[in-house]
Amino acid sequence: MASRTSLEYLESLKDGRAVYYRGRRVDDVTKHEFLSIAVKHAAMLYEFKRDGKFSEMANYSDPDIGLMSMFYKIPKSSEDLLKRHELIKESTRYCNGIFNIIQAIGSDALFSLLITSAKSGDSVLRQRVQKYYRYVVENDLAMAVAQTDVKGDRSLRPHEQADPDLYVRVVESNSDGIVVCGAKAHTTQSIAANEIIFIPTRAMVEKDKDYAVAFAIPANARGLKLVCRPVQEVEGLGTDDAPLSSKNLEIETLTILDHVFVPWERVFLFQDWKLAGELANTFATYHRFTAISYRSVMAELFIGAARLAARYNGIDAAPHVRDDIIEMILYKEILDMAAKAAAHHPLFDDRTGIAIPNPLYTNIAKLYSNKQFPNIVGALVDIAGGLTSTLPTTDDLNSPEIGTYVSKYLQGSTRYSGEQRFKLMRLIREIAGGPMTGYLMGLFIHAEGSMAASKIALYRDYKFERAEELVSKLAGVPI
Amino acid sequence: MASRTSLEYLESLKDGRAVYYRGRRVDDVTKHEFLSIAVKHAAMLYEFKRDGKFSEMANYSDPDIGLMSMFYKIPKSSEDLLKRHELIKESTRYCNGIFNIIQAIGSDALFSLLITSAKSGDSVLRQRVQKYYRYVVENDLAMAVAQTDVKGDRSLRPHEQADPDLYVRVVESNSDGIVVCGAKAHTTQSIAANEIIFIPTRAMVEKDKDYAVAFAIPANARGLKLVCRPVQEVEGLGTDDAPLSSKNLEIETLTILDHVFVPWERVFLFQDWKLAGELANTFATYHRFTAISYRSVMAELFIGAARLAARYNGIDAAPHVRDDIIEMILYKEILDMAAKAAAHHPLFDDRTGIAIPNPLYTNIAKLYSNKQFPNIVGALVDIAGGLTSTLPTTDDLNSPEIGTYVSKYLQGSTRYSGEQRFKLMRLIREIAGGPMTGYLMGLFIHAEGSMAASKIALYRDYKFERAEELVSKLAGVPI
Amino acid sequence: MASRTSLEYLESLKDGRAVYYRGRRVDDVTKHEFLSIAVKHAAMLYEFKRDGKFSEMANYSDPDIGLMSMFYKIPKSSEDLLKRHELIKESTRYCNGIFNIIQAIGSDALFSLLITSAKSGDSVLRQRVQKYYRYVVENDLAMAVAQTDVKGDRSLRPHEQADPDLYVRVVESNSDGIVVCGAKAHTTQSIAANEIIFIPTRAMVEKDKDYAVAFAIPANARGLKLVCRPVQEVEGLGTDDAPLSSKNLEIETLTILDHVFVPWERVFLFQDWKLAGELANTFATYHRFTAISYRSVMAELFIGAARLAARYNGIDAAPHVRDDIIEMILYKEILDMAAKAAAHHPLFDDRTGIAIPNPLYTNIAKLYSNKQFPNIVGALVDIAGGLTSTLPTTDDLNSPEIGTYVSKYLQGSTRYSGEQRFKLMRLIREIAGGPMTGYLMGLFIHAEGSMAASKIALYRDYKFERAEELVSKLAGVPI
Amino acid sequence: MASRTSLEYLESLKDGRAVYYRGRRVDDVTKHEFLSIAVKHAAMLYEFKRDGKFSEMANYSDPDIGLMSMFYKIPKSSEDLLKRHELIKESTRYCNGIFNIIQAIGSDALFSLLITSAKSGDSVLRQRVQKYYRYVVENDLAMAVAQTDVKGDRSLRPHEQADPDLYVRVVESNSDGIVVCGAKAHTTQSIAANEIIFIPTRAMVEKDKDYAVAFAIPANARGLKLVCRPVQEVEGLGTDDAPLSSKNLEIETLTILDHVFVPWERVFLFQDWKLAGELANTFATYHRFTAISYRSVMAELFIGAARLAARYNGIDAAPHVRDDIIEMILYKEILDMAAKAAAHHPLFDDRTGIAIPNPLYTNIAKLYSNKQFPNIVGALVDIAGGLTSTLPTTDDLNSPEIGTYVSKYLQGSTRYSGEQRFKLMRLIREIAGGPMTGYLMGLFIHAEGSMAASKIALYRDYKFERAEELVSKLAGVPI
After folding, report:
1. Which residue of B has its CA nearest to A433?
2. I need a labelling partner for D436 at 20 to 30 A (CA). Which of A133, A318, C217, D323 fits?
3. A72 vs chain D: nearest CA distance in angstroms?
4. How many Cα atoms are found within 13 Å in the side-chain-facing hemisphere of B330?
5. Around Cβ D53, how many Cβ atoms within 10 Å?
6. Model confidence pLDDT, tens digit, residues D32-87
7. What global pTM score does this model have?
8. CB B320 to CB C320 under 8 A?
9. What is the DSSP string of C53-101?
């Protein structure tokens, strides 16, 4: 189908889903003061797809399926991956620099499931995934993916935890399907999704086999509860002082499964513990490719803000400003070049011919991105000045009593008015000196996998042969 | 006098001062929902001074003045500076790791004024400062210091600005005193002060002489307006989810002088542009010594949180945890050792015999502290995990409908309950993943002077002779 | 022609060139104790091209010219650039990780001259360059490029220097050609080249027009003097203890032009000061692309050495070893992915259709490579241990009196003998603890341009529009 | 006794000691082309002590012993430690920035032995150490300390090694004394010492008890063999081009014990495995205090060289130069302030009253110093330019044929001649671009203990209580 309208999409969310905000059940996420921001943000993706300017980039006419979202196009070539990279970037820019996950992550998971189910050798499973893929695409659905289990004691495997529910698991299976319990943390935009795909978070051993489960459920499934993080970005500063978050943000939930029934046709991995790690990894690779693409555009927010702040403050010629901005450019461009190299040098899955972004380049950029982010914030704060912490509010600017003082004294370079400088600083406070800053720290450091996990994987998978042979030969010693 | 009670102090603030919060005049800061936190935080310093456990450390019996606040004791020796360092640290710990500026900064300014006025050679001025010092001490006053001008275009000197008010200046002088206009940014705890001291922010040239002005006024001076930053820390998360900020925080203001009259007895620098830079620098040295002392205790918040998070998550044996925490230890201890070295190797002012913390060590630690802070936040987030961004709220924990899920699924190591882990994570979100994080970024990077300014000063003042001579002699070439 | 044999190449160097080593004229570089290493290293490129294993990669059959060196193939597509990248890497590996510049740099310069001469609009010039290109290719010549002038006072332009010769300049021109004076620093492998191309090192203004000159001369041109750096690598440790440098190294010279005559057919830029900067930049881009390619293989030396050292020392499971090696992997792979992205996203010169590696990605990787190199050395030293500084020599190992002690006490992990560990450590000392280390520091930090210069160029050329527009639109303020 | 003359000292080394250089026995170290440099460097300490300018600082009149070397004065106060700090720095400066270890390290070991032997509770042992201390002091001896065992497989304890000799051990004991075998690596200036003290390198378990041994032997003890590292600094560049190393350097040896007999009066630890770790640690603390003191002066070499290079190159006003030099200043001053803080806040040994430099501050500075050193080298190379790798030699400068070219073209700023710039660059090549650079890398990264070992110790010993209590109390959760 052609892209749903944003209205159709928003209507589809009124389905009785069990969403909680600050301890209270939310009747209708599209109407909630804060959650509606996240939902409308998701809806912008549907607007993006229908925007004439982006329609070619965002839609695809499949010979078999017909018109469909470009996000769901299965990548079979470098060109497909490059287009996907540009699509993610352009849609992120459309949403003011905030990633819009609602179809990207679903496709990341679907591609992984297509590959893994093919590998399983189980043709029933394979067809199930294909059928579900088609269901999602044909209905232009909005998707969330729940991967990270709550995990309990991080030093223990799933089956070793004191409470067996600390990783999502099958508690019962019968001829109709399975029943699952457990909880996933940090599920982005589950409240804005039509369907949620659950996949394992790590490699498993045989004793973990009840935890080796992947499946999909609608967001209003009975027994599913979505507990939201607070929208501190907007609550903390107020709508006027949160020019970005009051328009664009995403919500993560603690996603609880209390004896949720899943029919067999939605079960995509069941007890096959050997495939759990591979599914987790393949998804991670796709999703990190997505991540380095969107993060490159988020970095533009920092670069643009830094450039304008320097000019507004009258310090654009200062050497430390240049150095700070070069740090930011390196940040953005290393992500970008990595994504491009990963697209140009993909792996191809044997069985399905699906193209997988080069995992080495993807992981390196992701690791770089996690580690450097705090310094990017620091660099912007360095340029913008102490006002990132101490700026008054829009209400002060608008106050008849003190507004004129505020605009008078916030004058910087005479090329701009005090009010304009206030507005710029208001945005900078939001991203580098406000609630969103703290939120972004966690996002950039942990989303799509911790640094420690990335390092272990990177070191484990790296091909050292050529380097070791070079030295062994040269030194005349064995490896 | 012995320390005022916290009640006496709080009463003293009900004086009609013109405080604005989000565009509205605040009648009584001690009663305002958010500003009262900052004010009660200040009051804790009076409790600290009267607490038997700290009374010896916090009070001093002067042969001349009698019992007085130890903060105001004029340092004449290394021992005095060391005690001051410990006093600042212990009072910061008393306030849960949040600096309590209300007498420290006042004394930083008073010491600088005593030195500078002595240097001026003007005995009237010198006596004025001494008299004012005695007034502050004898009344155990709470003080703010307004130094950083709003500055307009940073590439221009005060007298070159398009709007002459962008640095605080004398607009009129007569036999009674002077009239001042302008605004200072980032004035910490002005709303909680009895008196505010204004000093120049930079070195000046002759044409800037109307800007070479230092003076003190009561916080309720006519024409003085205090425009607060928003308390996003508490507004964003709510009291329960801001366990630290709902008890301890400080407020900065945009501090506006609209034709404020200052009688001569409160004018401490007037047109003597040559002394402006020296006063600014001497104050900066004292205040940076204060800063590296309190920041060392703030770092304890991060170290303690990291250690507990590692244990609660079951990852205390992981190598990356150790590396992260060692980064934090270096952060804290480099500040601490610098403060101690600065105290042990002070300068002594010729005329007054007042001990000034070693500026080189003080500035180096300050610069290190600014630059490394983002990585300290990053290190805590790395250990604590994605929950710093996605943790539900206390209302969720307490909800009859979902509270049990929250505590069940937040279980980490079995040595602690899910509820305990929630409470720990709630605090960590506050400092490393919430509104306070953004606020701290600006604070740590800019408070007490920008990095660029610090570098310029450090490089300008450094004694290169011995190093250059060593190399010149060795290479046999001229310097 | 097909690749010359290494013997033919070596013979071609016996042409009376004026080479100086440690103050003395060298009669025959192929016979000199230390310079012969550099020359034989160059000869290995001819062996490489004739090696069956690499012949397809290293040779190209041009429809017009016939069989020729692949280094000289003019890149017209991403594929050409990618092949060039692989060719540089593989030939570097063939030479034990040491770059072999002798045709790469010549082609970097020739491509730039082809582009710039086309741009000049001067068809005579264009044909001259084309003819010279053909001459080089058809004779399979070895080339050096002299770009960096000695520069005198770095704060002055060419024409402002006290001594007019501090940048290479035209001192006379007549109907036959021009006469040039001046000197270039750091000319790599000039002693091993058949021809040397001279190009400007920077952008120029009109007054610099006598310095806007590019030309080629044979290495035995009258008036040309090549003053070598000392081969401290081999002299310091001795052949046995310099297993790498005694086989593979390159020599830089101070390259002096004392009234050297250049016939017009070898003059490629003359007084056209506007093109000087563009020629310098285009060459820099090609040459930095070359640099990030070969540096990626040099990094393999460090990675391989680190892996083996960890194993030989019995610390391969230590977390700090993994972290050190991951630093090295990032180093190598960021260079690699940048080179690939630069090849896949080239610029195309309008007039000639020649593909230029993406300058942004090339420069970013080059800057990263310069800045991080000291830490790569540090990481290897960290793993290898103090023996990088204190290892005895091969003569000690071979000594009848003490050899058995040396091998006994250098035993590490029992998987390897003490002698084997000695041999590994000997190589590691050479690259990370010996004379070559110091040499590499300068090479990695300065070759192909200083960091300060790179930053200025990067910042100047960066496209900030999208980032600034994003923020401007979002904040509602002008750019 | 008053300080020996340097001549007396040099004579004392002609004692038949078994020294090997490049596989050959060296008859007389004072006459050997390269080893004599190290020996004469050591002799400079005796000159220093007799130099009127330093005699007060370098000598001490003990009421009991009489006039003695200040290095051996047992520190009993902060003042003593501060004086020791200054003594180490000043003597390092006297030796052109190169540490002169020959009495400092001996005293580091003697102080540790005095403390440990007192702790052992064995009064015979205690008196032995005291007697030996007196012997050393009264004869103004030059000392080396051999601590780091060759260690074999780093993942195994001493008693677990395949070859039992990989840690120094007692192979026999009888009524006269003990017989020891094994080898120590990296023993600095053993060839220039009168006596060598051997102490354990790590904590031990009961099974390691034969390895828990400390003792002293003369440098000519039978069975002791000293295998030198090569003096690549001077061999690589030649005397003229190694202006520093040709005057001042230290030599490390592989120090082999082949059945060396030690009489009981020289055995200071025997089988008391519980004390091994403590002795190792106490020595390490003293020696790291020594290290951060001398490294601070070595840093002056880099700072001075950077300043002069900037000026000679005409780039002293460039912002990146300032940033590079500030990095160096931080390096130097963090070491300095740490040493001072460690001196002002020492531990005092209960039994002996000996002052031990604060281990926390000492270790932090040492760790910082190891980690940052590569960047200090990088910073100097950045300022000095590519000539650090490609500079011709002094022979070129002096050559009648090409000398005038060299001086002409090495002209930088006109404030200096080309020859002067050559001489400066020659020194900079030596420290930042030559054989000494590689040597220094190992020295700065590994001398006085590896970073990994330092981190483990630092983390293990750190007092986390206050930080954990602060957070525990604030969050309301257990530790």
Report:
1. B438
2. D323
3. 45
4. 24
5. 10
6. 999 999 999 999 999 999 999 999 999 999 999 999 999 999 999 999 999 999 99
7. 0.96
8. no
9. TTHHHHEEEETTTEEEEGGGSPP-SHHHHHHHHHHHHHHHHHTTT----
